[in-house]
Amino acid sequence: MKPILFLPVLLFILLPCSGQDTFSPAQRAEWLRKAEACKPKLSETVKTPQRLVSLNKNEDAFQGWEASAAGDINTLYTSSLKKQSGVVVDFGEHLTGHFSCHFNLAGNADSDAPVRVKFTFGEVPAELATPFDPYPGGLSRAWLQDEIVTIDCIPNSITIPRRLSFRYVKIELLAHSSFDFKISGMEVKAVTSVTGTAAPLAQGTPQAIADIDRVGLATLRECMQTVYEDGPKRDMRLWIGDLYLEALANTYSYKNHDLTKRCLYMLAGLAAPSGFLHATVFETPKPHPQTRQHILDYALLWNVALLDYLKTTGDRETAFDLWPVAAKQVEVAKTYIGDDLMYNEKPVWIFFDWRDGLNKQAPLQGLFVKTFNDTYELAKMLGKEKEVADLPGLTKKMIRVARQNLYDSKRGLVVSGPNKQVSYLSQVWMTLGGIFTPKEAQKALKNAMATPDAVYPGSPYGTHYMIEALIACGLEQEAKDYLVKYWGGMVQKGADTFWEVYDPNNDFLSPYKFFPVNSYCHAWSCTPVYFIRKYPQIFQK
Amino acid sequence: MKPILFLPVLLFILLPCSGQDTFSPAQRAEWLRKAEACKPKLSETVKTPQRLVSLNKNEDAFQGWEASAAGDINTLYTSSLKKQSGVVVDFGEHLTGHFSCHFNLAGNADSDAPVRVKFTFGEVPAELATPFDPYPGGLSRAWLQDEIVTIDCIPNSITIPRRLSFRYVKIELLAHSSFDFKISGMEVKAVTSVTGTAAPLAQGTPQAIADIDRVGLATLRECMQTVYEDGPKRDMRLWIGDLYLEALANTYSYKNHDLTKRCLYMLAGLAAPSGFLHATVFETPKPHPQTRQHILDYALLWNVALLDYLKTTGDRETAFDLWPVAAKQVEVAKTYIGDDLMYNEKPVWIFFDWRDGLNKQAPLQGLFVKTFNDTYELAKMLGKEKEVADLPGLTKKMIRVARQNLYDSKRGLVVSGPNKQVSYLSQVWMTLGGIFTPKEAQKALKNAMATPDAVYPGSPYGTHYMIEALIACGLEQEAKDYLVKYWGGMVQKGADTFWEVYDPNNDFLSPYKFFPVNSYCHAWSCTPVYFIRKYPQIFQK
Question: Which chain B residues touch A147 with a CB distance below 8 Å?
Fold first, then answer.
């Protein structure tokens, strides 16, 4: 791919006839060229099945289904598949890659007709035990990983064309002739761009923490492909929110900083003509954004990620190069701030978490302040503070406004929106924005947690910031307890990789109205790796 | 492929430990090497759709469904596929080959999820209008040509992996996201090993004959691949019965005699250890027979085909080379002849036609005699008559026995089996075996046709021999009428290629309990090409 060649086409799409592009075509081309130069080569590791399993209904198991050992893989390989339709094979770990297998004749007969086989790949047992159709989900049914293959004649080898993400594979025979045949040689060419190895944890690290770390590392490994993907089963693309959290975890584990650099550049090169970063971009068939898809909090977190990248790597050249993008996000942010120095309700997607009903007013105020502070820090490191000279004054005022309008000093927490909602994430972002004093923050977080109807985080994404805030204000034991309870809960429920959605109270929670289409290996869930390794004094003892 | 390399393995399969091979390993290897040397290169022609069609129920149409013009293909290509799921595309002719198409975005949105599309390929309209499931058929359901494809992202191009055989393709959208997309660039890389062009028919040839000839040529072209296939949709392999009839048609049209040579050699190289030819052989993954699959009449017709090949080409080297195989088939045949010089009821598959209840005693007696006579003629041409010196005497006796036991001189026809069945094919094979005098043959054939409950041929295969017999005994007008009525009936019902099964009285006849799995382009139906061109005085005026 030669970004410089497709840029004119891209700009034609991005630019309305009368529009003006914030960044020059040459600048965008250069950013995309640099992104391409950092594209990692994927490593391939051949993985084979570990055993057969049976899927059993069990009320105590995650989502009501457990996979129990049901024999050696050779049991499957050495006798006719016709007697074993519906068999489930367990690769023993979550894998992302390309699946292939062989079909061989069994007995004396010849292959006189094609065979039709359905493979269903699942990250978790219930995914294989739940009928996909009629499909009630809110995302494309095609994300579900069931593939029907016609095998013209046997012996033969097949490879499923799409890249898959799974631990278990169910094999169902849909059509065959009278001759017998066997399946064998199942393997996955597992791919990742991870090259390094994470340093071991300190001796004496509690087992619960070690287990969480292991699953977190696997999650990150699976999501680190030619970009920081959000999840290898679904979406398979770069989102800013995932990039930031993966970069944090990568910094404390695999240290592939070029992947962070690549993603920062790619997002920059594909920003909207207004300069507003797109929330997500695609690599194929050539890098392009999801047009008009913006998430305000994600765009601001790109600045935080850039600062973090600079501090981690000392790569001033990249930070200089990308500074105009960071400055532009601040300008974009300002258009969402009213005269009262709070969010002006101008329509835009504000995310913060998968939690229905979460009011975003207070979290956004905290994020504005944090981002402006971080951007100013970045500017100072680059000698660019004159370009954003208004930021210190602005954040000071925004802090004051936040305290006046949102802080309920009697209750000792902030409330958000017209209904004065109490949520964990409102306290979290006030804390991370430095709007609370540490003591206020401690109190607010504790008060929220003690409020029975407080809105609590609905996903590992929101929960990450909860842990960050608890640590930031010195509630270290609470941070550890929360992390062990939340991520350890997934481990106890059998997670090989951490999930996109996890509510300890509802195994079936799905933002997409159908839990099998949830991603069960999701980048934004990998951050225990970061916490455990950045704060060994909290977690590794 | 190097046949000499796999031969030891092959022999290991073919030879029971204590068995003795009729042909030496070196001889088999040489025959297979010669078969491989004649393997034709397939020509590829890109074909594109001609129009859209709608499938309409119509009692008067073949199998109750007709395809009516429903617009230009660009109607499909230029607007969202999401609004056109279920569309049927017509390529305008029967094609055998590899299907591919493109998917492009429609409108501004980006491809943010995979798309799942089901393509159903049909040779005849009813095939696309009849639900395949639950599948009631007696052959593998996987022969039916419906393929489900997951397209990871759009734009993209896809190629269906399996070779297809069809005129119509139905496109159904099974899963998608909110973005719009279009399908375009549908094409088939159509394959055949035909290189030559058949000579034009005489000026003034009746239109009905010209139409039959055109459809016959298309049928033969589609079935001539790297072997004489029986049908490009189903089986896709070399059967002796099809080989013989295709070779006849080829001799009078495309004249690719090397394909005949290849098939004769391949069958010889893959004969059973006893020397008995297998009825069918496969080319992939390496040439091998359908083990223990013998059809007695097919094995004998191989001799007839070899004689015909020698007469057509003058290739004495091949005939010499393969003579031992022909001699062996006579020996095999003798083991099925009892002391009474008739079929001894030893179990073996005897085919002659797809017609339930057809008694094979009389047809087999006729075929024995014809084959022995033809083999003796072949021997004489090769100076080998001493090796089969008993044949003239044997056939003489078998003719006498046939006339004594089977000929009902009062009724003027032969009867077959314990129930004295009257069938067309009994008269046919008595005629072709020269057991009847021409006058007796005329009378017998006419009498059978005049017998209301006589068993008539159930397929174009059996019907071929009916035409051959009518011509052989001088009933030329009857032959022409029969051919025009039978094959012309298919043309009138819309055949693009001739069908495996055709009973003018039952559109839904299927030897496999489900008419959509019938082959609608079947080699053994192509022989009007042979009759029309071999006998211009009958057909081309």
Answer: 148, 150
